[in-house]
Amino acid sequence: MRNLRIHQRGLTFSTAMLIVALASFFLMLLFKMGPAYFQFWQVRSAMDKVLERPELGQQGPRAILSAIDKQLYINEVRTVPSDSFSVKTAKDGKGWDIFVEYVVQQHIGANVDVLMNFNYSVILPKKPQ
């Protein structure tokens, strides 16, 4: 009985290889998809920086888009097209609804691609509070 317990300890070789394969797969996904998410966080940061400048609400959509574009340039974000951003009057009419939506397609391997859809919106008051 005691001898049988010793032989049942640990992983088999095939289980260890399965764990290594799964870990490698998820690491590859992290390295392929991670930069797109990091870039999206920078885009969100740029849009949130606009909220720290309430005077832009009185200047209109062109000034808001220009401020976002400048912040993206500072953050080294070059792959998000500027036409992905839109500025519209908010539903309540008291602010600007700033919206970004873009898609990133990343090749994983062979005929497998990952399609990532990013969107985010903030509302900037038209008049400073």
Task: Describe the model.
A three-stranded antiparallel β-sheet has the order 1-2-3. The chain starts with a helix and ends with a strand. A hairpin with a 2-residue loop joins strand 2 (95-109) and strand 3. The protein is α+β, with helices and mostly antiparallel strands and 129 residues long. The model has no long low-confidence stretch (mean pLDDT 88). The protein has helices at residues 2-7, 13-51, 56-59, 61-74, and strands at 85-89, 95-109, 112-125.
Radius of gyration of CA atoms, rounded to a whole number = 24 Å
Unreliable runs: none
What shape does the CA trace take? elongated
* Order of helical and strand elements: HHHHEEE
* Number of beta-strand segments: 3
**Percentage of residues in helical conformation:** 40-55%
The secondary structure category is alpha+beta
Count of runs of 4 or more consecutive helical residues: 4
Main pleated-sheet profile: 3 strands, antiparallel
Q: Strand order within the widest sheet?
A: 1-2-3
Q: Tell me the distance between the termini.
A: 77 Å
Q: How large is the share of residues in beta strands?
A: 25-35%
Average pLDDT figure: 88
Topology:
Blueprint (H helix, E strand, L loop, with lengths): L1 H6 L5 H39 L4 H4 L1 H14 L10 E5 L5 E15 L2 E14 L4
Antiparallel strand pairs: 1-2, 2-3
List keywords for this structure.
129 residues, alpha+beta, 3-stranded antiparallel β-sheet, 26% strand, elongated
